[in-house]
Design goal:
186 residues, alpha/beta, Rossmann fold, 5-stranded parallel sheet, two-stranded antiparallel ribbon
């Protein structure tokens, strides 16, 4: 299986990066190919130009299409992000916004997506609790999956993070479980 992980943190050695690397290690040990794409801090959201709607059978974002071609090529996609104001980091939110180029005819019987049926996973790290904090991100993720017609294969929400060296040892086991769910081998 070919898995694309979109990492939305600017800290390449932070909590979400550490957990994502544990997931990658497990997936690779299972024989899967994993590519981690560090989403640039300057990654912009949708410009609402609707150029993509002129070409519904390919990602035709007027800004950039590299990530979207990688999503189409992958068998499964992971979003990994620290919690920023009850949501995804700005760069990863930009990826979500510009996913408009992957969807055609939303809210009609012809609704289709270039990533339809693919497994998606979500990893969120936060300094605070899950309740009244992180669950807003999961709601956004679930609605995103309806829009792009993806499958919610796995979620890993990690509250009360400080520094990677202080992560609860049980989180590594949860990362392995997340990897198994992403591939349907749980």
């Amino acid at each position: 299986m070919k898995i694309l992980a979109l990492h939305g943190s600017q800290r390449n050695k932070g909590n979400s990066a550490t957990i994502l690397n544990w997931v990658r290690e497990e997936l690779e040990a299972m024989g899967h190919k994993v590519e981690i794409e560090h989403v640039r801090p300057d990654y912009k959201g949708c410009q609402a130009c609707y150029n993509c709607k002129k070409y519904p059978d390919e990602p035709a974002c007027a800004v950039d299409n590299d990530i979207y071609y990688k999503m189409i090529d992958a068998d499964a996609i992971i979003f990994a992000t620290p919690l920023h104001c009850w949501s995804f980091s700005a760069p990863l939110k930009g990826v979500i916004d510009r996913s408009l180029c992957l969807v055609a005819d939303f809210m009609s019987p012809k609704h289709r997506s270039l990533v339809e049926g693919k497994n998606f996973g979500l990893i969120v790290t936060s300094a605070g609790p899950i309740k009244n904090n992180t669950e807003l991100t999961t709601t956004l993720f679930e609605r995103y999956l309806v829009w792009i017609k993806g499958v919610n294969a796995a979620e890993l929400l990690v509250p009360f993070c400080s520094e990677p060296e202080n992560l609860d040892p049980g989180i590594k086991e949860k990362a392995k479980e997340f990897a198994a769910k992403m591939t349907g081998s749980h």
